[in-house]
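Throughout our pipeline, every protein is held as a single compact record rather than as scattered files. This encoding replaces a full spatial description with a residue-level series of whole-number codes. The remainder of this section carries one protein's record, kept here as part of the documentation.
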Amino acid sequence: MGDLTGRTVVITGASSGIGLAAAIDMARRGANTVLVGRDPARLETAAAAVREAGGRTVPAYRSDFAKLDDVHVLVDHLRQRYERIDVLANNAGGVVRGHVVTADGFEATLQTNHLAAFLLSNLLREQLRGGRIINTASGAHAMGALDPGDLRGARRRGMWRQYGSAKQANILFAAEAARRWPDIMSASYHPGFVRSRFGSTIGINVMARLAPFARSPERGADTLVWLAATPRVQLTSGGYYIDRKLARPTKETADPALAARLWDESLSAVGLA
């Protein structure tokens, strides 16, 4: 794995689980880690842990991705402080029970997992030149049925179908970013079934703690850190990775036409078109 010394890494969903584990690992490898999370108390605790691991000050920003205004505020802070961001890890997300619509008018799972990260990445485009975007996706994308024309969720789907669709969006976004932004290395990855706070509102975290096959957050974060630190020439931009190996998502999720349509619809949705 390559060296991260001096690189600025912004990690969303960094207050616990995979995001925190990745932040600690990258800090130990010399990165200047920047944490983004929703819960102030957990974020403060996480920042202390990362500071102890890396021996340096750890900026931490609260941002709720269920509110696109929060993304704009976060971008303002990051632009003021950083001329360059070497790695943006779009790790925030989760699964929402039932049909929930955000204040912005979008289906909550799709907004928190995809639209907020898409907006953040686009607004930080200049800072990311020559850098990397890494999206935390999931093998659950195989359950998705993404319709880029229905980002507001007018057509109701089951909880896992909607989550799978959001994970499809993560993979498609990374692939299309590689085509549109060749100066940025982009990728997505599947972390596996991880013992974390994921799904805490619906009890999945309890199952993960008890399941013997569940991974530790550190194991789940391994491919994320590897994608951030491995020399670019050894990686495939736009690729989907599992356990440090290039993998192929479902046929639908590998469709360039669907990726292009999702990009254009997402630009319109977040007010960038």
